[in-house]
Here is the input.
Amino acid sequence: MKKSLILSLAFILVFAFFISCRKKVEEVPPPPQVEEQPKVEKVVEAPVVKEPELSEEEIFIRKSLEEINLEKPLEMIHFDFDKYFIRDDAKPSLVTNAAWLKKWESVNVLIEGHCDERGTEEYNLSLGEKRAKSTVDYLVSLGISPDRMKIISYGKSQPLDIGHNEIAWQKNRRAQFTIIKK
Here is the structure.
């Protein structure tokens, strides 16, 4: 054991000697940084081209019939039970619709007559047609050409509200506008 201890000690001394004799690597300081003069580049900005603003008519022309109908520029009106006469609360909506139609003289519309679920299919188809026709007549009285309007009756086949109560039925008794030509 004494031998191995002496041998280990000798090995450690030789190892320490070699480590201490090793050449030290000189650290070279980094080269001094030369401050570069900022390059002056002449930046020429491209002239700002402003998109021409589109007029209301140009915007309207670019829209599809589907886009216009989704905006619902024409208000639907509602009717009393079993009636097709224009109610007083519907007249301002029709005046607004007539003003819009006068503004866009190329537009043609389909006026749809709708009913609630009560009554027979034949009766509701007839009542829906009368509702659409009375809507056309009122718009004609406001100066809209009848040639720009078509009517159709859906009777009770296309309810807005599928409920079976007075609130749903009130919503379903209506004349609704669809733009068919612009």
About this structure: Residues 9 and 15 are 10 Å apart (CA to CA). Helices lie at 2-21, 56-62, 65-71, 91-103, 121-141, 166-172. The beta strands are 77-78, 108-114, 149-155, 174-181.
